[in-house]
Design goal:
115 residues; mainly alpha; 4 helices; 86% helix
Length: 115
């Protein structure tokens, strides 16, 4: 199979992750716009949402690389090893992002302005 034969599968994967990408992008925009109200939690949340976006894009790029390597006849052991490394990095990014989101929720909010 050629790489072009795998493009529908790659497009379907990209389409399925689009709502999550949009939600994370909206989270980044809202946290940046409400940074003064949210305080340090906004910084943690922006970092978490950015890591989530990076992890999703890394997964998509890894899948595209896997399809490309399968089309070029790369040995399965080499492709599997690379895919395992991508998966491990993705898990670390997701765990870090989840920890940052928990820290954002638990972070101390700034005191309300005194009138």
């Amino acid at each position: 199979m050629t790489f072009e034969d795998w493009l529908p599968a790659l497009g379907a994967q990209a389409a399925m992750m689009t709502p999550n990408l949009i939600a994370c992008a909206v989270g980044v925009v809202l946290c940046l716009s409400w940074k003064r109200r949210i305080g340090v939690g906004a910084v943690y949340a922006v970092a978490a949402f950015s890591l989530q976006i990076a992890g999703m894009l890394l997964g998509l790029a890894g899948q595209a690389w896997m399809y490309k390597s399968m089309a070029s006849g790369m040995p399965a052991s080499s492709a599997g090893l690379f895919q395992s490394v991508i998966g491990g990095v993705h898990v670390l990014l997701s765990l870090t992002a989840t920890g940052l989101l928990i820290a954002a929720v638990l972070a101390r909010r700034p005191a309300p302005p005194q009138s």
